[in-house]
């Protein structure tokens, strides 16, 4: 899972320096912080997709008109 050893060349130098400075302040390795960030982002996206899927599930629901006519 440690395939980020060459990622610095894919990030512009200013951003790379900012990320390095941030991770040093936090006492972490840049690679570890990038992995944490990627996982957190993917978890957020998965949660959002699951939430949207739950909203789209209309089984056992009624329309507003049906509800108001009760």
Count of helix runs: 3
Helix content: 55-70%
- End-to-end span in angstroms? 57 Å
Provide the gyration radius in Å: 22 Å
What sequence of helices (H) and strands (E) makes up the elements?
Answer: HHH
Mean pLDDT: 84
The amount of beta strand, in percent, is under 5%
Number of strands: 0
Oligomeric state of the chains in view: single chain
Overall shape: rod-shaped
Biggest sheet record? none
Can you describe what's shown?
This protein is mostly helical and 70 residues long. It has a domain at 29-53. The chain has 3 helices and no strands. The chain has helices spanning 13-25, 30-56, 64-68. The longest helix has 27 residues, at 30-56. The radius of gyration is 22 Å and the shape is rod-shaped. The model has no long low-confidence stretch (mean pLDDT 84).
């Amino acid at each position: 899972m440690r395939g980020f050893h060459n990622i610095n060349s894919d990030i512009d130098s200013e951003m790379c320096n900012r990320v390095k400075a941030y991770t040093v302040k936090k006492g972490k390795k840049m690679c570890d912080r990038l992995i944490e960030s990627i996982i957190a982002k993917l978890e957020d996206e998965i949660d959002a997709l699951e939430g949207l899927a739950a909203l789209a599930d209309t089984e056992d629901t009624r329309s507003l008109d049906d509800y108001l006519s009760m």
